[in-house]
Amino acid sequence: MSARKPRVTVLGGGTWGTTVASIAARRTDTLLWARDPRIAEAVNRTHQNPRYLAGFDLAQGLRATTDLVGAVERADVLIAGVPAQYLRAVLERSVDHVRPFIPIVSLVKGLEQGSRKRMTEVIGEVLPGNPAGVLSGPNIAREVVQGYSAAATLAMPDHHSAQMLQGVVNTSRYRVYTSEDVVGVEIAGALKNVFALAVGFGDGLGAGDNTRAMVITRSLHELTRLGVALGGRAETFAGLAGMGDLLVTCISPHSRNRYVGFELGRGRPLEEILASMNQVAEGVRTTAAVMKLAAERGIDMPIAREVDAVLNHRQPVEKTYRGLLRATPGHEVYGEGW
Ligand SMILES: NC(=O)c1ccc[n+]([C@@H]2O[C@H](COP(=O)([O-])OP(=O)(O)OC[C@H]3O[C@@H](n4cnc5c(N)ncnc54)[C@H](O)[C@@H]3O)[C@@H](O)[C@H]2O)c1
Ligand SMILES: O=P(O)(O)OC[C@H](O)CO
């Protein structure tokens, strides 16, 4: 790569893609690709994204486009902020135009339904010559875009590209740590959404703070066991992308995944909740993939199983905790189950 600062293209003009693009635009030449021309036009003219981040000012230097080919052709670094179920299709449209060897960073916290693949695996299949990594952590977009302090982990297969990319997204208020544990950071980000749904169930049903703490803590146990079985490092799950993100997603009133769980707990049908939202809650479609991965690895995931039962098998939410409470607890650290 030349001595000039890398040109960044962010794919996905939703809440988080826009936020990360705004951060990068303060450091280097950054272009946001949005599907919706109204978003691209608003970013260029008003420096705001009225659909996803209404009222929040973005970096003045950020530019946006709907031209996918032009956006990827110019990029020294691609950052992917398109939800998990759509990323493959967007990359396939870009495949002949992405420059060889440039790094690709996923912001996505979900698994592809059907294939059960992580997003760096999807990137590796579509663009096998490009190193792929992930940026993930406790990052509620509306707080980051307002400049509240936050941190995340940037995992790349090699330390050199992690350090180069750190220079693109790290600021005094958005602290980006580096890691080589791509699998661990990515799995942590996808799984925490499933457990935020479980915490939302309890909150919607009127459970107490002790219950919430119990579910979060046992969720971390479950998340770590599957993550390690899939090749992640145990210490990653105790860090920002693991415990940190699980915590914020399970307690923040701004979390979409917790919101879906909460509304289910209050008795609203899933279809109605999803139809009323204009944003993605990745856990809804990731849960079935998680259950299949767990079954393949022989990992018991009782909390995730209850979420799957409610989302995909029409189990009434109020039965969730009753089902869990029937099980006798085993050893806290080495035990398999709930
Ligand atoms: N919002 C946050 O606070 C936050 C923080 C960290 C990570 N993330 C992750 O970032 C990813 C993107 O989430 P978001 O919050 O920016 O999304 P969002 O819900 O704000 O916006 C939806 C996005 O999906 C795109 N989209 C919808 N249908 C599409 C299709 N058919 N093809 C292509 N694109 C389509 C929209 O254009 C838009 O960019 C998710 O994996 C999410 O978990 C979000
Ligand atoms: O709003 P959610 O539930 O998608 O969570 C947003 C971020 O992933 C929190 O780190």
How are the SSEs placed, and which strands pair?
Layout lengths: L7 E4 L3 H11 L4 E4 L3 H10 L16 E3 L2 H6 L3 E4 L6 H8 L9 E3 L12 H8 L5 E5 L4 H5 L4 E6 L3 H11 L4 E6 L2 H24 L3 H21 L4 H4 L2 H12 L4 H10 L4 H6 L7 H15 L4 H11 L5 H8 L13
Parallel strand pairs: 1-2, 1-4, 2-3, 4-5, 5-6, 7-8
Antiparallel strand pairs: 6-7
The structure holds nicotinamide-adenine-dinucleotide (NAD) and SN-glycerol-3-phosphate.
The site of SN-glycerol-3-phosphate has 12 residues, from helix 8, helix 11 and helix 12.
Features:
single chain, 338 residues, alpha/beta, Rossmann fold, N-(1-d-carboxylethyl)-l-norvaline Dehydrogenase, domain 2, 2 domains, eight-stranded mixed β-sheet, 16 helices, 8 strands, 50% helix, 10% strand, globular, binds nicotinamide-adenine-dinucleotide, binds SN-glycerol-3-phosphate
Summarize the structure.
With 338 residues, this protein is an alpha/beta fold. It has 16 helices and 8 strands. The longest helix has 24 residues.
